[in-house]
Amino acid sequence: MLIKDRPSHIVEITSEAQTRLHLCALYRLLAHFKMDDMIYSHASAKIPGEETFLINPFGLRFEEVTPQGLIKVDYAGVIEGDATHPANAAGFVIHSAVLSARPSIGCVIHTHTRAGVAVSSLEEGLLPINQWAIEFFDRVGYHDYEGLAFDLDEGPRLQRDLVGKVALILRNHGLLAVGQTIPGAFYLMYYLELAVQTQIDIMASGRKIYMPSPAVIEHTSKQFTSAYDPASAGHRMWPSLLRLLDREYPDWKNGFDDASGHLHQ
């Protein structure tokens, strides 16, 4: 097997129903891996062929999100369909800004984890001191804290700070990761979270930090699938994560028919 081969299974997400299913999976996985924050923070995904995206209903924990319950909204903020909950206002500001500005981005994840907030509050930000962090070398932007993200005029500054990056460290706030696909965005957020957790652990030890050489950092950062083939990032592990959900949370699909690929109302 070649080192830089593509995964044999690329998850095809070509319909609204499939987008709902896989975005619901992402929410359940964020909860499973303890990257949720009660009813706060959010993830979104574009609906293929439309100028709309899906986001979580505000008021539900991530472990309660279902494919049918995800809210469909356009970039003007108009909710489509019969939503039983409102959308998170800050979620709309952040996700509409990112998704509308970058055609190649299909999914956005924003978290408030303890380690993510901690690193976002450090002047030096994320350091390339472990292999997980090195994947993000020169691929993470920084966005200064402006308060709760309720103002639409913050959108252009989010767009500016994300240019050429796969993630943002939102100062004094948390983390944001983007992917061409839902599996790709989850992959990047999962490993960004491990990178910040490990940095906090290392710093808490109080011991002198060993820093890889600049040449090794630059070389290694280009070896990851997310760097040389971003369209396939996360696809190798995604089927195994869906099996985890099937095993641990057998009702997570809630109405999605695997055979037909449709949701039953």
Quickly give the CATH architecture. 3-Layer(aba) Sandwich
The global form is: globular
**Percentage of residues in helical conformation:** 25-40%
CATH class: Alpha Beta
The low-confidence parts are: none
Structural class: alpha+beta
**Order of helical and strand elements:** HEEEEHEHHEHEEHHHHEE
Q: What is the arithmetic mean of pLDDT?
A: 92
| The CATH superfamily title | Class II aldolase/adducin N-terminal domain
DSSP strand tally:
10
Q: Describe the strand arrangement of the main beta sheet, using strand numbers.
A: 4-3-2-1-5-8-7-6
Q: How would a textbook summarize the main sheet? A: 8 strands, mixed
How many structural domains? Answer: 1
CATH topology grouping: L-fuculose-1-phosphate Aldolase
Distance N terminus to C terminus? Answer: 44 Å
Radius of gyration: 18 Å
**Number of alpha- plus pi-helical segments:** 9
In short:
The chain is of the alpha+beta class. It has helices at 16-32, 89-101, 114-120, 131-134, 155-162, 182-205, 214-221, 225-228, 238-248, and strands at residues 42-46, 52-55, 71-74, 79-80, 107-111, 140-143, 167-170, 174-179, 256-257, 262-263. Strand 1 (42-46) and strand 2 form a beta hairpin.
Describe what this molecule looks like in 3D.
The protein is an alpha+beta fold. It has one domain: L-fuculose-1-phosphate Aldolase. It has helices at residues 16-32, 89-101, 114-120, 131-134, 155-162, 182-205, 214-221, 225-228, 238-248, and strands spanning 42-46, 52-55, 71-74, 79-80, 107-111, 140-143, 167-170, 174-179, 256-257, 262-263. The protein has an eight-stranded mixed sheet, with helices on both faces. Strand 3 and strand 4 form a beta hairpin. Helix 2 crosses helix 5. The longest helix is centred in the C-terminal third of the chain and has 24 residues, at 182-205. It starts with 15 loop residues before the first helix and ends with a strand.
